[in-house]
Structures are given as structure tokens and as C-alpha cells.
Amino acid sequence: GSSANEMKVVDCTDAGAQFKVLGKVEDKSQTEASVGGERICQPYAGAERIFWKGEEGGKGYVLCLGPAK
Length: 69
Description:
The chain is globular. The protein has one helix and three strands, in the order βαββ. It is an alpha+beta fold.
């Protein structure tokens, strides 16, 4: 999916898989993810997108995503 509400977890071999998780970075706020997402995911080669999940106003985690294929 293209938004948090549309995203779902599927197996990497699923034909519908668009991205794969290349890395997970804990303890990041939504602001840190939106402003510094590229920097946060820099250690994960091939990361093209980020996904943040957490409590609004608090900390959460960032998933560094790369193409599934």
C-alpha cells in the first residue's frame, strides 16, 4: 500500500509484495522520521522509502524499505 491504512504484511515471495524490509530502527519520533528518514535508513543499501509506526507525539520505529523485486 501507499499509506499506513493500506499497508499489509505479505510474504516476500507473494506476487503482490511491493517492498521488503531492509532494516528497522527503534526509538524515533514521527518528526525524526519525516525530516531525517533518508539519513536514518542510510546504513541499509537499497532503502528507497521509510515507514514510521508509533504513538503520535511519542517514539516509535522506522522501517527502511526497498523494492521487493
